[in-house]
Each structure stands twice: as C-alpha cells, then as structure tokens.
C-alpha cells in the first residue's frame, strides 16, 4: 500500500453500479411484473434506457431548468416517458409507483456486503450518492449494506460531480480531503473527487452495462487503487 | 397498541441521555485521566456542570449571538471554561481534545443495543440529535448502535427543539409526521415533536442525572407510549 494511503480514515462510495447491480435488478423485477400483467417488453433495453436518462435529468436540475428535485421524482418522470415510448399502458398508478421503487430494492454485487463488512472494521463507510436519502436507507435495509453514514447529494442539493456534494461530506466528517477515499466504478466520480484532493479507488464492474457491453476498464494511472471488487479493495487496503 | 400507532414506519431517537449514559462515561474517563495526571477533581460535579452548559451554548447559536457552531466546538468552549473554574491547569492541548472527544465515546444504556436491534427489524431507526454528524458516527461505531440513518441538527443548522430539525428529517424520510415516532427521555423533545404531529414515546432514564437526582418521570398523558426501556418499547410496539 502506498504510504499516502495510510492516513485514509473514511471511504465514500458511489452506489449505483458500484455497490448495487441496477440493471439485473430492474430486468428481474420487470420480467416478473410483465408476466403478472401479460405484457411483453425488452427489459434489458428498458433498464439501459432508464439509466440513460439519469444524467440528463440531473443536468436539468443543475442547470436550474428544474427546481431541486430528488432522484425518486426524476426517476418517476423518466419512467413515465419510457412507459409511453415502450407502449406500456397496462400499469395502474400503484404499479408504476412500485416499479419506480425498484431503485430502493437494488441487489448488491456478490462481493459488496462481505467486502463492506470487512472494510467497516477499519474505516468509516459513507455513501456519496445521487440517490435520495430515503432511497439509500431503504436499499441498505433491504440489502444489508452496513453504512456508518448515509450521505446523499440531496443534503447538499447538488448532484455529483458538483464539488459541493463531496465538500459537504468532507465537512461533516471533519476530515482532510486526503483522509477520504472515493470508491467508484466510474472514473468521472473519481476525477471530481481527485480534484478536491480525495484519494481514489477504482473498482471494476465489467457487467454494469450487461454482458454484451464493452466497458472502459482502462484505469487512469493517477488513481490510487484499482481493485477487482470490494474484497480485493479490503485486501489492498490491508484490512 | 393504540390503532393510531399502526402506521408508524420510522423511529427518531434523541441520543444524549436517551440512548447513551453521558454522566457515567464522563465520570469513568475523567477519573482515569485524573489518576494518570495525579490531579483530584469531582467528576460527577464536572459532568453535571458540562451538561448544564449544553442548552445555554446552543441557545446562543439559535439567538444568532454565535454563527452556526457544531456541538463538538460548543463542548470545547464549555470544557475550557470548566477546566478553569475547577482549577485544572495540568492538561495539554492534546489531552483537552481527547477529553472533549468523550462525547464520541459515550456508552449506551444496557438495553439500548438489544432494544435497537429488535426495533430495527420493523422500523427505520434514525437519530434526531443535537450532536454533530461526526460525533454520532463515531459513537455508533464505538458502541455498536445499528442506526439506519444518522440524522443531526447540524444538517438543518437548527438545534432541537427548533421545528426545522424535525421537519427536515421528516422530508428526507418522505413520511407523514404521524408515520414517525420520536423516542426520548426528555419531555421537551417529545412536546416539540408532538406539535408537528409526530407520535411520541417517552422512555424513562431515571439515572440520567445520577443516583441522587430526583427526575420528573410523570409522563404527560398525551404521550403515545411510556416505556421503561428500549426492550419494553419494542414489546409495546409489538416487535
């Protein structure tokens, strides 16, 4: 382990894609729903399209075209658009709300819970996610994610990669930026953290976009740690 | 259980005095420190005096006489005052900082962890404390308090009983006020929650102020639940 990492006291985790597998969960729940309702729909395409509208929706908020809107509400707007585009007219309001809640029920990658439990013995584990607080609390309770602190962009009213989200977490933890390591499967998250002086760990999630996707797993050499999963991260951090 | 309580989904806990026994922890750590340093001091009186300056310090912030100041910093100011008043001149800056950190290391009442673990199977468990986030995170990690959400007055920049702290928690949880039950050993906390429509549970902590104190344990009849401890609370809430 590099000497510079010995001062790390807290790990800040990106969540969607890094800790949980949104794509498989949406496909699984979607297929069950479609069977119940007797409809046919390509849930892999639906999951990818839903996730694809995530960044543009947050960008509308950050450009001031929308007032502050939490992720549950952004997801509901994009869900309604996609249901129309995919020609799904069979869902009641209750069923749409339940489907929108799938983000609260996302399943963790297999190494997430064992890796986090091990990391928790040495570090403060915080989420640093664009998911709203309620979503993250429900997800943690459902999946057994042992966070010490559920922190959300909602508290800063600024979506990542806006620096205000990272800085607010740093202030609450009363740590220097080099005492916090951002953990993410996305290099954009890590770059924003790095610019503020955080340490960085890139965790590869080659299946985030499905078995057919060709993800960019070429790690920027300036990143502090590159790990294959959370258990490997714990090993590299000598936990 | 009253029918009105069946809709409760989250419990919001006062922490100092309700979950943890600050008085005994301060006395125990203080006595150890005094022995190391060869000084004599009445730590029971010191603990009571330190806690006694808590409300006036927060009131100065809420009246605008001080800019927003977190509880760690308020505790440090009042600690310095008390060390001078008790005639303690033997402590280094590092020792004073360590002593101030005792609030991060407070020990839970014996029923707190087992009661919370049982309540966690049915309810979202959140702190609603004037302690700052870092203090609450350290305390939870140290004492094994299984919070789903660490929420602090620091996030609202308003100390309880200011309604902004309670309302912000309610908004983050996306619940109606009658879906949240405030749990506290102090009726002032419960009154403020009740005025906003929260449900209320009064948990008696007869030893909070020490074995000689005569606490007011006469529960206001408008409170929803009166419990002897957290295990009794779980039983009354049918967990």
TrEMBL record, chains A, B:
Broad EC category: hydrolase
Keyword Hydrolase (UniProt): yes
GO molecular function, one term: (S)-2-haloacid dehalogenase activity
Enzyme Commission numbers on file: 3.8.1.2
Keywords, ordered alphabetically: Hydrolase
Protein name (database record): Haloacid dehalogenase, type II
